[in-house]
């Protein structure tokens, strides 16, 4: 060992650049010079030693290099590892947020969920009778919560979306824009908004979720005269037009549709439940009770779907949806309900987007807000686009561009009041259309859409003057 | 040479000792190097970090794995053929949608100092006349109840963070609920009115425009998009503010004595609609225009205010500076409210929600049940926040549910827990719905009642 040490030591000294004049160097040289005189055994020994030293040095070099630079994937650097962890952690958090899993689901949630069987009867709640009378009494006892404000009946706009993030982020962005659009319209017209993000009844999930919520709001808010349901994919595109409620003083349900499609053709798209108004009264509660039974998830909804497809024209085969169910209900019990249902098509209480959005520029040129019909649609409804899901019925680019155009078309009517407008129907940037002055109220009086200043220029709506 | 001095035996012994010493040192050196390579040496770092430092030093342009760029859209595994599916939202690039038409931006005249708009000096008179001519739009809804407009907003472009828009949506729903219960109108802004005042300064031109366009509004309430209402029953004490024009959360000592840059918060404040407010906005704005002015102003603010880090001028620091240096002009009409959380920093509130539910009830608005929980620094819409993503988003969910529970209980429901999206029934339905009263009295609250007039 001592000899090895000596040999190693000698070699290390040489490799570390030890050019100092030490006796050992001479010794090595002397050894080299004297090699021919050394016996063979010793020579082999020396060779062995050299090899050992080489291997040892090689091993140490590799160790040091590995510590310094690493050997590719075998060892990544610390900073990368930290970064990788951060990315994985964040993606995990985002995936958790976007999934449907809930921390409060029971641990055995992998079991089959309990569905109502075909024999069970489903109810929205305890049967209410005499609601009209109850409501009247309440209103007389609570004069500070009247059912009309400034001469206009109180309306509550109900809309909503699922509580979890959309399958893709664009969906949430358009939900946000749609709710801004509704906030704008409702602020101008004094309507209150309820934005629902809770599934009140796990049986009636999906498009049926509006039924329990409508009933709940009616019963909790007797001061509300009309409840207006609007889908999250529908936007107001006429900010001046008002629903002519005086036209409906003898009706309890106002819904957009076509009577001939309904009665003659029995088409499944004869009416649209994306935007409709329900009066707060006993009749409405009864209709909701009659409407709900096709809704409960599971075998009931499936079977009901088959019945609807068999009876309504053009309906594809899928589970029961609220729109088909309402059409079927109104057709099969026509005498009971239809006299109080107003099927409206004089203006676009619901306006199917295809065919409308391309014409916005033409409308801007030829017409003006306040008409509500095909010249300047009241509501543009993006049926089938489904931006909150993963797949829609139409090409994504077409849908999103159209939604952006509709949003900006409506937003222009709001911004005009402040002297601004979008640079183009697809542009998020705005430009000034009226210069700032030191007397802003003069300009405002001319463009304020809440108060018809010049009586003849007011819209075609029959707004009751307060 | 040494041989002659000491003798050969001795020399050899010394040589051997020297050899062994050298071996020892060499081995020691080897050990240290290897250990450092394996375990690191504290702040001196590992050779790997040395290498990183070297590379970053020499290749400064190339960024080595930004630690913050974590919020990348996770692209789903595309099945074959779905990459070009035009109906698939997941593979769509949103940048194809927005088009910036009608190019030229109005370039501001660099020689003219920045103004928010033409100077108005008689706003009180103009407004008074308008209110007289329009009795249907009174500025007071009831005795002691002014007409309030809540203003908030966000960018017209989608958030960089894939769940950012979802949290903006929840935040606006939360505000819709509070404002519906309290009879307040909402203006949600998505337009940049003045390109020079971008970022946090964008609220100034917007506020001025809204004040001038809505003379019927008595108070304008600005609220950041990352602030949520967590006390649905608390009504602002309007009588307390009848003689002031600006209400912000903050402390007098911290603003006027310490000049602390977080002595007040401009994430949630009330501004009365009058001439004083217009003058204040004009005095506040000059530090805002982006570019050189904002950077230079930032340096002044960092120098003058306590605890302010170095960055461009922000509206909050500018307000602290304005009040601290011009107290005589503005101070008597400014109320720094600390009696309740007109702005509540989320860091000290969110962990205590369960405790609050157990011990207190809504209506306090203060530390017992905060009115507003403000997620300062979370920036859920952007990719980089000051706090870890998980903490921010999870706590925003909790705050949202905490507030939402107070709304749902009106209808007999509540969230299953503060972290859960699911709701459960807590009050059974009866055949006499009008007899049901919610615990908080929010179904028909007094602050929503309309004036009972003799004419219907």
From TrEMBL, chain A:
A family per Pfam: Glyco_transf_34
Enzyme Commission identifier(s): 2.4.2.39
Top-rank lineage group of the source organism: Eukaryota
Acidic residues compositional bias, start-end: 102-111
Location of this chain's protein in the cell: Golgi apparatus membrane
Biased composition (Polar residues): 1-15
The UniProt record lists the keyword Transmembrane helix: yes
Catalyzed chemical reaction(s): Transfers an alpha-D-xylosyl residue from UDP-D-xylose to a glucose residue in xyloglucan, forming an alpha-(1->6)-D-xylosyl-D-glucose linkage
Gene Ontology BP annotations: xyloglucan biosynthetic process
Gene Ontology cellular component terms for the protein in this record: endosome; Golgi membrane; trans-Golgi network
GO molecular function: hexosyltransferase activity; xyloglucan 6-xylosyltransferase activity
Keyword Methyltransferase applies: no
Membrane topology field: Single-pass type II membrane protein
Keywords: Glycoprotein, Glycosyltransferase, Golgi apparatus, Membrane, Signal-anchor, Transferase, Transmembrane, Transmembrane helix
Region (Disordered): 1-33, 97-116
Family: Belongs to the glycosyltransferase 34 family.
PANTHER family on file: XYLOGLUCAN 6-XYLOSYLTRANSFERASE 5-RELATED (PTHR31311:SF13), XYLOGLUCAN 6-XYLOSYLTRANSFERASE 5-RELATED-RELATED (PTHR31311)
Protein name as annotated: xyloglucan 6-xylosyltransferase
Species assigned in the record: Linum tenue
Organism lineage: Eukaryota, Viridiplantae, Streptophyta, Embryophyta, Tracheophyta
From TrEMBL, chain B:
Enzyme class: transferase
GO molecular function annotations of the record: hexosyltransferase activity; UDP-xylosyltransferase activity; xyloglucan 6-xylosyltransferase activity
GO BP field: xyloglucan biosynthetic process
GO cellular component: endosome; Golgi membrane; trans-Golgi network
Membrane topology: Single-pass type II membrane protein
Pfam families, per the entry: Glyco_transf_34
Substrates-to-products reaction catalysed: Transfers an alpha-D-xylosyl residue from UDP-D-xylose to a glucose residue in xyloglucan, forming an alpha-(1->6)-D-xylosyl-D-glucose linkage
Intracellular or extracellular location(s): Golgi apparatus membrane
EC number: 2.4.2.39
Entry's transmembrane regions: 21-39
Keyword vocabulary terms for this entry: Glycoprotein, Glycosyltransferase, Golgi apparatus, Membrane, Signal-anchor, Transferase, Transmembrane, Transmembrane helix
Matching PANTHER family: XYLOGLUCAN 6-XYLOSYLTRANSFERASE 2 (PTHR31311:SF5), XYLOGLUCAN 6-XYLOSYLTRANSFERASE 5-RELATED-RELATED (PTHR31311)
Family classification: Belongs to the glycosyltransferase 34 family.
Name of the featured protein: xyloglucan 6-xylosyltransferase
Organism: Linum tenue
Species classification: Eukaryota, Viridiplantae, Streptophyta, Embryophyta, Tracheophyta
């Amino acid at each position: 060992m001592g000899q090895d040490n000596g040999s190693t030591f000698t070699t290390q000294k040489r490799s570390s650049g030890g050019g100092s004049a030490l006796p050992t160097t001479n010794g090595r040289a002397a050894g080299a010079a004297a090699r021919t005189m050394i016996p063979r055994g010793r020579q082999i020994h020396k060779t062995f030693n050299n090899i050992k030293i080489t291997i040892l040095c090689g091993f140490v070099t590799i160790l040091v290099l590995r510590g310094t630079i690493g050997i590719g994937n075998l060892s990544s650097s610390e900073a990368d590892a930290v970064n990788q962890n951060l990315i994985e952690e964040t993606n995990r958090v985002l995936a958790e947020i976007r999934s449907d899993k809930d921390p409060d689901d029971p641990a055995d949630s992998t079991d089959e969920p309990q569905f109502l069987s075909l024999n069970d009867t489903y109810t929205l709640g305890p049967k209410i009778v005499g609601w009209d009378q109850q409501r009247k009494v309440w209103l007389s006892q609570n004069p500070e919560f009247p059912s009309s404000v400034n001469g206009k009946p109180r309306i509550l706009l109900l809309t909503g979306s699922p509580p979890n993030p959309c399958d893709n982020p664009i969906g949430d962005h358009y939900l946000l824009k749609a709710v801004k659009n509704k906030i704008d319209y409702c602020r101008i017209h004094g309507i209150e908004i309820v934005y629902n993000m809770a599934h009140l009844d796990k049986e009636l999930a999906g498009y049926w979720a509006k039924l329990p919520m409508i009933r709940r709001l009616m019963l909790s808010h007797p001061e509300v005269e009309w409840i207006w349901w609007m889908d999250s994919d529908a936007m107001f595109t006429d900010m001046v037009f008002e629903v002519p409620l005086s036209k409906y003083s003898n009706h309890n349900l106002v819904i957009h549709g076509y009577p001939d499609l309904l009665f003659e053709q029995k088409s499944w798209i004869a009416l649209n439940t994306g935007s409709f108004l329900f009066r707060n009264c006993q009749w409405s509660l009864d209709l909701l009770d009659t409407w709900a039974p096709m809704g409960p998830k599971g075998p009931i909804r499936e079977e009901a779907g088959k019945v609807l497809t068999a009876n309504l024209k053009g309906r594809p085969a899928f589970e029961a949806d609220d729109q088909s169910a309402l059409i079927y209900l109104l057709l099969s019990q026509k005498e009971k309900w239809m006299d109080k249902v107003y099927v409206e098509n004089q203006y676009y209480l619901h306006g199917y987007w295809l065919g409308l959005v391309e014409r916005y520029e033409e409308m801007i040129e030829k017409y003006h807000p306040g008409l509500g019909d095909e010249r300047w649609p009241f509501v543009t409804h993006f049926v089938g686009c489904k931006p909150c899901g993963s797949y829609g019925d139409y090409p994504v680019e077409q849908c999103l561009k159209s939604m952006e155009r509709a949003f900006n078309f409506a937003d222009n009517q709001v911004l005009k009041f402040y002297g601004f407008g979008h640079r183009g129907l697809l542009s998020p940037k705005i430009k000034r259309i009226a210069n700032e002055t030191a007397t802003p109220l003069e300009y405002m009086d001319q463009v304020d859409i809440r108060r018809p200043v010049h009586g003849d220029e007011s819209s075609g709506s029959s707004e009751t003057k307060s | 040479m040494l041989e002659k001095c000491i003798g050969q035996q001795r020399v050899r012994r010394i040589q051997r000792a020297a050899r062994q010493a050298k071996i020892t040192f060499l081995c020691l050196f080897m050990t240290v190097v290897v250990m450092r390579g394996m375990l690191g040496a504290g702040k001196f770092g590992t050779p790997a970090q040395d290498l990183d430092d070297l590379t970053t030093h020499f290749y400064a342009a190339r960024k080595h794995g930004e630690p913050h760029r974590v919020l990348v859209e996770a692209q789903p595994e595309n099945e074959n053929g779905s990459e070009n599916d035009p109906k698939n939202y997941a593979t769509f690039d949103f940048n194809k949608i927005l088009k910036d038409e009608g190019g030229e931006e109005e370039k501001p005249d660099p020689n003219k100092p920045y103004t928010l708009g033409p100077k108005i000096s008689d706003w009180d008179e103009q407004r008074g006349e308008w209110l007289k001519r329009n009795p249907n739009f009174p500025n007071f809804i009831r005795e002691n109840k002014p007409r309030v407009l809540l203003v908030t907003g966000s960018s017209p472009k989608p958030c960089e963070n894939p769940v950012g828009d979802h949290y903006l949506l929840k935040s606006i729903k939360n505000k819709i609920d509070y404002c519906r219960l309290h009879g307040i109108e909402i203006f949600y802004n998505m337009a940049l009115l003045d390109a020079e005042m971008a970022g946090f300064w964008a609220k100034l031109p917007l506020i001025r425009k809204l004040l001038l366009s809505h003379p019927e509004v008595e108070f304008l309430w600005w609220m950041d998009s990352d602030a949520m209402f967590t006390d649905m029953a608390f009504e602002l004490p309007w009588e307390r503010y009848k003689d002031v024009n600006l209400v912000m959360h903050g402390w007098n000592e911290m603003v006027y004595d310490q000049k602390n840059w977080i002595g007040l918060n401009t994430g949630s404040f009330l501004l009365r609609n009058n001439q004083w407010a217009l003058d204040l906005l004009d005095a506040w704005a000059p530090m805002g225009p982006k570019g050189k002015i904002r950077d230079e102003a930032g340096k002044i603010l960092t120098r003058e205010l306590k605890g302010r880090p170095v960055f461009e001028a922000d509206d909050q620091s500018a307000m602290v500076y304005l009040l601290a240096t011009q107290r005589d002009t503005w101070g008597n009409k400014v109320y720094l409210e600390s009696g309740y959380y007109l702005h509540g920093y989320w860091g000290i509130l969110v962990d205590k929600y369960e405790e609050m539910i157990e011990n207190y009830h809504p209506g306090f608005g203060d530390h017992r049940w905060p009115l507003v929980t403000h997620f300062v620094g979370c920036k859920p819409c952007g990719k980089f926040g000051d706090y870890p993503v998980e903490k921010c988003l999870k706590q925003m969910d909790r705050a949202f549910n905490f507030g939402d529970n107070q709304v749902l209980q009106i209808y007999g429901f509540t969230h299953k827990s503060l972290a859960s999206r699911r709701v459960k029934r807590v009050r059974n339905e009866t055949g006499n719905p009008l007899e049901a009263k919610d615990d908080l009295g929010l179904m028909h609250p007094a602050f929503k009642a309309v004036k009972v007039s003799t004419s219907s």
